[in-house]
Amino acid sequence: MLPKNFALLPEDVQALLLEYAFFSNQVNERWGEQASFASQKAYVKYLDDYLSRATVDFDKGLLVIETLATSEPKKQLKNAIVTALLTPDDPAQVDLFSARKISSKGKPFLLGQVLDHHGESISYEWRAQKFAEHLIDQRLQINDTPQGLRYSVNIEMVSNHTQVAANNIRGWVTQASNRFNLPESLILAIIETESGFNPFAVSHANAYGLMQIIPSTAGADVFQKVLKKRGQPNRDYLFNAQNNITVGSAYLTILRDNYLSKIENPTSQLYCIISAYNSGSGNVFKTFHHNRKQAIHRINSLSSDEVLWRLRKHQPSGEARRYVEKVLAFQKKYYQ
Fold it and tell me: What is the model's pTM?
């Protein structure tokens, strides 16, 4: 794992590419067509020399533990279940891009989002062990695959797991809200839209963490303009939930106070900030006019409803058009 606050230089990027390549090869060799990798809404961690894995699908609210081990598969599955349930929210202890063992010290990142067969939260090893034994006894599935027998169990997360996750990070959201004068509801809505509260979220664009920060763009912008640091945040820095919320919130203020500061109507500006968080301020302006000054003039001549309509209907990408709707819908959940 890279040391905290270590800025990525070209040689570090090369090392990361080699790490990804080795990791991908190992996963594909073990799992073949069943191979899967971490994404924005899915946490995927391999263990036991890549023979076992835990997958948390934050959209479906489902935790799946599997093993292809041929020697004592139930024992390996039990170990994987316990590890998944007790995986700490400390990114220094979790390497998604290897099969390294995870320490069970610290607050589990799924605490309260998964309950045992007695309806209790799982924060201690003895409870995780008992639950794992129950799952293997009552819910074990064995499937024949091209890679051999796959032993697995499915665990449903609590129905309100996103609210539980939101409450777990509420303190850091409040700090960021106060520091950057942003509504807590906006920060939480962007987190739910970007990652579904997956602190180890990774995207194909190399965005990391709860608010999906790209180190070389938004991350570098925040380091230089707000936090007054050199370089850019690295992956481990952004997997830290508090750091990620700080950087993501700071970037929202850069959009508000710099790139979109000349938009006069606060509601119109909010819509543009939300959209720019996803697609960039340049694409927001292009939705209204190819010339930036003319785009600002056009935005200021429209009502906030008209601005929202154009963002929803005329942005270049479908994802960008849907993004502002999703954030606004989620924001209503978190109004206080």
Answer: 0.91
